[in-house]
């Protein structure tokens, strides 16, 4: 027993020295190497795929946002309100979820029987940057009316922003809401000017 | 293309990639752990750590080294977390003491259960210098223990199982670190962030405000998956777009979390000098994985026919099939990362994830832990099969006698004991019922999921359960610690008992352990043991919910 104890103490010192050496290698050197690679070949990705308008950052292509106002395409409901300093889903299920969905539908003035599923459900991250094509298309009349644009014009914009499955089979077809709204703002700017 | 075709093709590509890699990687690992030479950088590390790489250890010394290294790791990580406010890059992150205990135990035991939110609980310094380091060393510890057990079967005399420090360092330098570097660069190119920018508030086009996070995420994400760790940089884990931005990174992450565990059967086959034994274990792991994947996917696809498309808690860029694939793979290993919220899954989908863990994470299990847990079930299988047909139970010519089967049975019993006792106390006392988000059977599943996840060192959650209270943090920490180290000590004792035995020659009375029949028995024993242990509890949770 005493020999096991002294062995434990001896091995603990070795463990402490090992942890210090490995912390330098794996906790400092390894992340630094990956950081360096990012700076050399993937600066944009490493920084978070940021989007700038007129020189100021307005968001990231990867991170969904809260859109307020009828003139913008909206994203999905979010359990964290797209704040960005928190993330996560509702974790609801069963009748609690049914009640929450009814609340979301009435807030967004959607008919739960016909609305696309992603318009009624919150994502796991609370930061989903995408909506389905169906949800984007269903918003065309509202957005066109609010901006005084022809529905066909806005519908064509949505069409142009549908991204297919990656490599033809991975993931789902989707529309990036920020990209779509940027194009929408540009289109309105042109129409106005 | 329909979702079904897309989903099946995704699985096909994943399986093809794993099939292509597991043979060379498995053979390489066998070479790594039998090589008689040391790399120069390894010699330097042994000098700094002051250990003699030439000396071998008996099982007790090996176990003491594992425990000492892990206890030191817990203490250091705990100190890093509680003093993070005075360390560099603090950025206002903080944690309660009980949360810090839970987190330190969690990352050292390869669980990565998180009762804090990554955005608020940990500074970039702690994430990188503390958590990333444990993400590397905790799978290396699991790998070392698995190799020690394989040596117990492979060697036919003596008492030594190898040197823990050598196994630890080689596993890191020759296997885990190189793969993590490649994985990190691939994820970085795919859009996972890697910067030290402080969170910045931007004004959006519609005039709102949003905080954009920074962090050294790509380097941590790669090892989080590869090391079957699972602790997210952010609260939303691999559902967060900065951790998992698209369908390609999603597939890469699933591949990373499966690749070492699925390659280890090859390592085993090569090291024991009979590759068919490796195929048997691989067949066992792959069958169970396919079985659980089918069940979870079927349940989610079935639910997706409803008006909500089973999309609550899931991302549009992934959809139902890749979410089910991730959920199955993360709970069939000890990873516990999530790309969708398991609590919002259908009753049987979430129940399937829970059952995968209850089987003991065998399909293919965590790095190292998967192989040694599977070998324990193999020993149980030869014992049961031996009783049925009246043959002497033996594996690879090593007799499974009273000592061996006692150690095996104890190993198998640790996890269910922790899960059922702590779930029962929590519900009946009732100490945790006020923390449940859901009521009824789903609420029970929340609590059972938490203790199952902890005792199996998984780390995924039914995240509606508010686990950040002193009682829950400390009991979960206890489950993680005992669930990790009791089996490790028992498995090393088993290895010590096996290594001392001479290999018996194969005779007509030997039960072959490399036939498809044996694989069938092997799967049957795992499912029956797990099923019988947990069926009553599951009947009150996910099964009751599915039937109501």
Automatic annotation (TrEMBL), chain A:
<keyword id="KW-0547">Nucleotide-binding</keyword>
<keyword id="KW-0067">ATP-binding</keyword>
<keyword id="KW-0406">Ion transport</keyword>
<keyword id="KW-0813">Transport</keyword>
<dbReference type="GO" id="GO:0005524">
    <property type="term" value="F:ATP binding"/>
</dbReference>
<keyword id="KW-0630">Potassium</keyword>
<dbReference type="Pfam" id="PF02669">
    <property type="entry name" value="KdpC"/>
</dbReference>
<dbReference type="GO" id="GO:0008556">
    <property type="term" value="F:P-type potassium transmembrane transporter activity"/>
</dbReference>
<protein>
    <recommendedName>
        <fullName>Potassium-transporting ATPase KdpC subunit</fullName>
    </recommendedName>
</protein>
<keyword id="KW-0633">Potassium transport</keyword>
<keyword id="KW-0812">Transmembrane</keyword>
<keyword id="KW-1133">Transmembrane helix</keyword>
<dbReference type="GO" id="GO:0005886">
    <property type="term" value="C:plasma membrane"/>
</dbReference>
<comment type="similarity">
    <text>Belongs to the KdpC family.</text>
</comment>
<dbReference type="InterPro" id="IPR003820">
    <property type="entry name" value="KdpC"/>
</dbReference>
<comment type="subunit">
    <text>The system is composed of three essential subunits: KdpA, KdpB and KdpC.</text>
</comment>
<comment type="function">
    <text>Part of the high-affinity ATP-driven potassium transport (or Kdp) system, which catalyzes the hydrolysis of ATP coupled with the electrogenic transport of potassium into the cytoplasm. This subunit acts as a catalytic chaperone that increases the ATP-binding affinity of the ATP-hydrolyzing subunit KdpB by the formation of a transient KdpB/KdpC/ATP ternary complex.</text>
</comment>
<keyword id="KW-1003">Cell membrane</keyword>
<keyword id="KW-0472">Membrane</keyword>
TrEMBL record, chain B:
<dbReference type="GO" id="GO:0005886">
    <property type="term" value="C:plasma membrane"/>
</dbReference>
<feature type="transmembrane region" description="Helical">
    <location>
        <begin position="518"/>
        <end position="539"/>
    </location>
</feature>
<comment type="subunit">
    <text>The system is composed of three essential subunits: KdpA, KdpB and KdpC.</text>
</comment>
<feature type="transmembrane region" description="Helical">
    <location>
        <begin position="474"/>
        <end position="498"/>
    </location>
</feature>
<feature type="transmembrane region" description="Helical">
    <location>
        <begin position="59"/>
        <end position="83"/>
    </location>
</feature>
<comment type="function">
    <text>Part of the high-affinity ATP-driven potassium transport (or Kdp) system, which catalyzes the hydrolysis of ATP coupled with the electrogenic transport of potassium into the cytoplasm. This subunit binds the extracellular potassium ions and delivers the ions to the membrane domain of KdpB through an intramembrane tunnel.</text>
</comment>
<comment type="similarity">
    <text>Belongs to the KdpA family.</text>
</comment>
<feature type="transmembrane region" description="Helical">
    <location>
        <begin position="279"/>
        <end position="298"/>
    </location>
</feature>
<dbReference type="GO" id="GO:0030955">
    <property type="term" value="F:potassium ion binding"/>
</dbReference>
<keyword id="KW-0813">Transport</keyword>
<keyword id="KW-0630">Potassium</keyword>
<feature type="transmembrane region" description="Helical">
    <location>
        <begin position="172"/>
        <end position="193"/>
    </location>
</feature>
<feature type="transmembrane region" description="Helical">
    <location>
        <begin position="369"/>
        <end position="389"/>
    </location>
</feature>
<dbReference type="Pfam" id="PF03814">
    <property type="entry name" value="KdpA"/>
</dbReference>
<keyword id="KW-0812">Transmembrane</keyword>
<feature type="transmembrane region" description="Helical">
    <location>
        <begin position="410"/>
        <end position="432"/>
    </location>
</feature>
<keyword id="KW-1003">Cell membrane</keyword>
<keyword id="KW-0633">Potassium transport</keyword>
<dbReference type="GO" id="GO:0008556">
    <property type="term" value="F:P-type potassium transmembrane transporter activity"/>
</dbReference>
<feature type="transmembrane region" description="Helical">
    <location>
        <begin position="247"/>
        <end position="267"/>
    </location>
</feature>
<dbReference type="InterPro" id="IPR004623">
    <property type="entry name" value="KdpA"/>
</dbReference>
<keyword id="KW-0406">Ion transport</keyword>
């Amino acid at each position: 027993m005493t020999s096991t104890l002294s062995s434990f103490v001896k091995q603990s010192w070795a463990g402490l020295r090992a942890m210090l050496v490995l912390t330098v290698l794996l906790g400092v050197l390894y992340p630094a190497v990956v950081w360096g690679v990012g700076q050399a070949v993937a600066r944009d990705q490493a920084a978070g795929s940021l989007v700038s308008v007129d020189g100021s950052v307005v968001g990231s292509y990867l991170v969904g946002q809260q859109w307020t106002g009828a003139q913008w395409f909206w994203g999905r409901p979010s359990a964290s309100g797209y704040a960005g300093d928190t993330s996560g889903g509702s974790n609801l299920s069963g009748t609690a979820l049914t009640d929450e969905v009814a609340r979301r539908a009435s807030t967004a003035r959607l008919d739960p029987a016909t609305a696309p599923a992603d318009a009624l459900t919150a994502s796991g991250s609370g930061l989903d940057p995408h909506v389905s094509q169906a949800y984007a298309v269903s918003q065309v009349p509202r957005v066109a009316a609010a901006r005084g644009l022809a529905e066909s014009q806005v519908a064509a914009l949505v069409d142009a922003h549908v991204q297919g499955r990656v490599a033809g089979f991975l993931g789902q077809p989707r529309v990036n809401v920020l990209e779509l709204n940027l194009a929408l703002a540009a289109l309105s700017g042109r129409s106005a000017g | 293309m329909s979702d079904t075709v897309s989903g099946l093709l995704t699985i096909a590509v994943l399986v093809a990639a794993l099939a292509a890699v597991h043979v060379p990687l498995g053979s390489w690992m066998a070479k790594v752990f039998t090589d008689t030479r040391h790399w120069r950088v390894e010699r330097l590390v042994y000098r700094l750590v002051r250990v003699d790489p030439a000396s071998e250890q008996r099982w007790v010394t090996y176990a003491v080294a594992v425990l000492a290294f892990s206890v030191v790791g817990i203490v250091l990580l705990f100190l890093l977390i509680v003093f993070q406010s005075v360390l560099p890059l603090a950025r206002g992150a903080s944690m309660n003491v009980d949360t810090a205990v839970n987190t330190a135990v969690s990352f050292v035991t390869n669980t990565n259960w998180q009762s804090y939110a990554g955005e608020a609980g940990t500074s970039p310094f702690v994430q990188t210098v503390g958590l990333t380091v444990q993400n590397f060393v905790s799978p290396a510890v699991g790998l070392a223990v698995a190799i020690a057990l394989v040596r117990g079967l492979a060697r036919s005399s003596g008492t030594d199982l190898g040197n823990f420090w050598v196994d630890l360092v080689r596993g890191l330098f020759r296997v885990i670190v190189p793969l993590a570097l490649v994985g990190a660069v691939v994820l970085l190119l795919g859009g996972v962030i890697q910067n030290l920018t402080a969170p910045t508030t931007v004004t959006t086009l519609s005039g709102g405000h949003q905080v954009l996070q920074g962090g050294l995420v790509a380097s941590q994400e790669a090892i989080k998956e590869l090391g079957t760790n699972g602790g997210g940089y952010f609260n939303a884990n691999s559902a967060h777009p900065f951790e998992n931005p698209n369908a390609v990174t999603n597939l890469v992450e699933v591949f990373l979390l499966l690749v070492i565990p699925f390659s280890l059967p090859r390592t085993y086959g090569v090291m024991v000098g009979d590759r068919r034994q490796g195929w048997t274990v691989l067949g066992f792991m792959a069958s169970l994985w396919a079985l659980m994947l089918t069940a979870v996917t079927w349940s989610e696809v079935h639910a997706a026919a409803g008006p909500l498309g089973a999309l609550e808690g899931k991302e549009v860029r992934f959809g139902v099939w890749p979410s089910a694939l991730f959920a199955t793979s993360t709970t069939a290993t000890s990873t516990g990362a999530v790309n969708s919220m398991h609590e919002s899954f259908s009753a049987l989908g979430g129940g399937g994830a829970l059952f995968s863990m209850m089987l003991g994470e065998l399909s293919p299990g965590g790095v190292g832990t998967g192989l040694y847990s599977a070998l324990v079930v193999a020993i149980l299988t030869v014992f049961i099969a031996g009783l049925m047909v009246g043959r002497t139970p033996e594996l690879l010519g090593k007799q499974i006698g009273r000592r061996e089967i006692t150690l095996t049975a104890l190993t198998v019993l640790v996890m269910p004991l922790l899960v059922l006792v702590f779930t029962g106390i929590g519900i009946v006392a009732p100490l945790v019922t006020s923390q449940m988000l859901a009521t009824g059977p789903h609420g029970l599943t929340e609590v059972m999921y938490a203790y199952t996840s902890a005792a199996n060192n998984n780390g995924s959650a039914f995240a509606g359960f508010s686990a950040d209270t002193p009682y829950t943090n400390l009991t979960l920490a206890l489950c993680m610690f005992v669930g990790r180290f009791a089996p490790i000590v028992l498995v090393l004792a088993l290895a010590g008992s096996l290594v001392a035995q001479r290999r018996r020659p194969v005779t007509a009375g030997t039960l072959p352990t490399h036939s498809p029949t044996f694989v069938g028995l092997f799967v049957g024993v795992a499912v029956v043991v797990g099923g019988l242990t947990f069926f009553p509890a599951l009947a009150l949770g996910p099964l009751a919910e599915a039937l109501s």
